[in-house]
Amino acid sequence: MASKIRVLIVEDDMIIAANISLQLSKIGYEITGIETRGEDAIVHAKLNTPDVVLMDINLKGSIDGIETAYSIQANSDIPIVYITANNDESSFERAKKTHPFAFIAKPINMRNLHRTLSLVEEQIKKREKNEFMNEELVEFLNDRIFIRHHGQMVKLLLEDILFIEADRNYCHIVTAKQPYLLTATLKVMEDKLPGSHFVRVHRSYIVNITRLEVVAESHVEINRKVIPLSKSYKEALLKHLQTF
What we know:
The chain has helices spanning 14-26, 38-48, 65-75, 89-96, 110-137, 186-192, 231-243, and strands spanning 6-10, 30-35, 52-56, 80-84, 102-105, 139-140, 144-149, 152-157, 161-167, 170-175, 179-182, 198-202, 205-208, 214-215, 219-222, 225-228.
C-alpha cells in the first residue's frame, strides 16, 4: 500500500483521467482532483497543494501542460510527471526546461506509473530530510548567516548577498566576491531570510532588493546579472520597493 501522496491529475480526456484516479486510489494515493484545463489546474494547485502533478502536455484551453507546469512551479516546488502521447521533439525540449521528474507515455502502464510515483515519494522524503538537516547546518542571525563551506562555518553578512538561485535541492548564494553552494531548498531560505530585504522574484530566484540596479518589465538586474521576473511575483516585489 502506497503512502498517502496527494496527486493532482491534469488530463483533458476524462475517461483516461477517471481510470488513473480510480487505479491510484485503490493502491493508496489521495487524488486532490482532476482538471482538464491548465488555467483550472493552476488555481487548484494553489488551493490544494498536491505532492505531485500528473500533467498531460496537450490540454484544452489557452495554455498547454508545459505552460501550466511553469505557472504551478512559480508558486510551489511541486514535482511534475508528464503523461503524453506526444513524441514531438520540440515539445520534449520545452518540457525539459520545467525539470520534470519523469515522462510517461500513453497508453499508461499503471505499474510504471506506480513505480514512478514511488520514486517521487522517495525524493520528497529526501528533500524533507535535507531541509531538517539544514536547520542545523545554517545559523541565521539578525544581520548575518553562518553556512558550512569546505568543512568550516563561514560568516556571510546579509547585505553582501546579491541573490540566491535554486538548483533543485540546492541553492547558490551569490555574493560580489564568490558564490556558495548550500544543501537547502529555496523555500527554506525564503522562510528563514528577512522578508523586508529578500524577495522571491521567480521560482528559481530570491533577490536582495537593496542591491537591485534595474527593475524591468520581465527581469531585474543585480551586478550585471539578468534575473527573470515572473508575473506572479512582480506585484509583491513592487510593493516591497514602495515601502522600502
